[in-house]
C-alpha cells in the first residue's frame, strides 16, 4: 500500500515507541481506573482518551444524563450443553475480575447495570458448537455487563451479535482458566442510529489462548476498548478487527495489551475501510511491556483503506517497553487511498469501476478474514462486506 | 480489419492552475497487423497521446476524434475502451495492494472476453505465457505491482498484452529502464502478439534501441504535440544519427 504520501488530508498516522520509567498509557488518562463513575470527571473532549470522540453524539452516556429506559436492549443467549447461563445481580462476586473501567462511560456502565449475564464453560469442556449471544437494541437506553468464563482447559467459541437501535454502554469480561482456549467474535451490526460504548476485558490464564475478532459495520457511534492482561505466564492473545466505516459514522477501537507477566504473546491486526463524507475511524493500539514481562513477543498492526474523499482516519500505535529482555515487539500503521490511478489501471484492463472497487476491498480484507479460522463467520463477513460495498456505489 | 483512427486530436491538461495544451492536432491511423513507432523527445506529448487514448481522467479532449472501427472511442469509459479492444501498457503501472496477480488477470480476462475463462485451460495459458516471459510462477501470488522491480512491472504489462489479445496495443515506453536481457524478453512477448497479425501496435519510445527487436512498419516523429514527420524504418536510423534537434527547433518540418 502506498503509505505516507497517500494519507488523506486531515488524517493522522502517528506512532511512538516509548521507553519509560513510568507508563504514559496509565498517566495520560484523566483519572485512574475505577468501578465508580463518580471517580471520573465529565469529559469535555480535550482529554487524551476523548479527543477523537464526538461527545455530543454519545446521547448523554458520558455525562450521566442518559437514563436507562427499561427496554433498551434484549439479550438472548443460546448455549450448547455443558455451558451454564445465569442472570445475576450487581453483587455477584465473580463480576469485575477481568479489568477495571478506564473511562467514564465504562464506569457509568459498571455503576448502572442492574443485572449481568454470566456464561460459564466448565473446566475441560470442549464445545463443538458456538455460544451465541444476541444483543438486540429496542430503541432505548441501556447499561449492561457480561461475564464469560472458561474453566481450565475448556475450549469455546462465542459469537456476540449486536443489532437494532440502542444507546448502550456495556462491558464484557472474559476470564480464561489455565490452558483454556476462547475465541470471541463480536459483531457490531447496529442500525445507523445506534450508540455503543464498551470495554472488553480479557484476563488470560496460564498457557491460555484468547482470540478476539471485533467486527464493526454499523452504528452512529461505536467506541470499544478491547483490553488484555495476563494472569500468569505462557498466555497468548490474538486481537483481530475489521471495520467498514460509512458516511457519517464514527467507529473507534482502542486496544490495550498489558504485558504484565513474563513469556506471553500478543498479536493485533485491525483493518478498516472507509467511504463517504464524515466517515471517521479511530484506532488506538497501546501495548505496554512491563518490567517484569521478560520474554514478551508482541506485534500490532493497523491498516486503513480510504475509498472516497471526505473520510478521516486517526491511527495511533503506541508501544511502551520497560524491559529489553523480550523476544520481539513491533507495530505498524498505514492509511492508503484507493485512488484514481488504481481505478484507472483496473478499468484500463476492462474491469468496470464498481467491480474494481470490490476487487480492491475484498483483497484488502481477505488476508484478515482468512485468519479467523471459523468458516461460517468468514462467509458471513465476506457477505457483509459485499453488501456494504453495494450500498455505497 | 480493426482500424484506429485519430483525427486532429487536441488535448489539454490542468497544471499549476493553468490549462496547457499538450496535443495540438494529432493525425494517425493504425491498422490491425501494423506496427507504428512513435518517437520523440521528452515532453513532446507522446505519453499524453497514450493516456488520452486509454481515457485517463487527467486529460481533457478539446477537439478531434478517435474511432475504433468507426466507433467513437472518446465517448467510451476507460473500461469500455479496454473491452472494445484497446490496450495500454503503462510506463509506470501502479500498485494495487491486496489484489493478487492471478486474481487480477482472471478478473480482467473475464471482463475483456465477456465470460470467465475455463479454469483448467486458463491456468495453463497463464503458466505458459509467464514462462515465455521468464517469470517465476510464484509471481502470480504477489499483489499487483507491489514491490515489483522495473523489469517485473514491464513483464507483467506484456503478460497482460499476451493474455488479453487486444485489437490495438499502445506500448508506452515499455523499453525504458530495462537492461538488454529484459528488453529482449519483453520484445519477444510483443512479437508473439504481433505475429498473430491481429494486433495493431503503437510503440511509443524515446530510444531507437527497442526497434532492433521490434521492427516497425512506420516511424513517426513526435514533437510539440503533433506528428512532425513520418516515414519507414529508415527514419529511425536518421534519428539515431541526428537526434531530435531538427524537430524541436521552431516546430515541424522534415
Automatic annotation (TrEMBL), chain A:
Instruction: Write down the InterPro entries for this protein, in alphabetical order.
Output: Fe-S_cluster_assembly_SufBD, SUF_FeS_clus_asmbl_SufBD_core, SUF_FeS_clus_asmbl_SufBD_sf, SUF_FeS_clus_asmbl_SufD
Q: What is this protein called?
A: Fe-S cluster assembly protein SufD
Family affiliation: Belongs to the iron-sulfur cluster assembly SufBD family.
Domain (SUF system FeS cluster assembly SufBD core) ranges: 137-364
Name of one Pfam family that matches: SUFBD_core
TrEMBL record, chain B:
PROSITE patterns registered for this protein in UniProt: ABC_TRANSPORTER_2
Q: Which Gene3D superfamilies match?
A: P-loop containing nucleotide triphosphate hydrolases
KW Nucleotide-binding (keyword) present: yes
Q: Known CDD domains for this protein?
A: ABC_FeS_Assembly
The alphabetical list of record keywords is: ATP-binding, Nucleotide-binding
Question: InterPro entries this protein is in?
Answer: AAA+_ATPase, ABC_transporter-like_ATP-bd, FeS-cluster_ATPase_SufC, P-loop_NTPase
The keyword Iron-sulfur is annotated on this UniProt entry: no
Sequence ranges assigned to domain ABC transporter in this UniProt record:
4-249
Q: Which NCBIfam families match?
A: sufC (TIGR01978)
Q: Which family does it belong to?
A: Belongs to the ABC transporter superfamily. Ycf16 family.
The protein's name in its UniProt record: Fe-S cluster assembly ATPase SufC
What is the originating organism of this protein? Answer: Streptomyces anulatus (Streptomyces chrysomallus)
Q: Which gene encodes it?
A: sufC
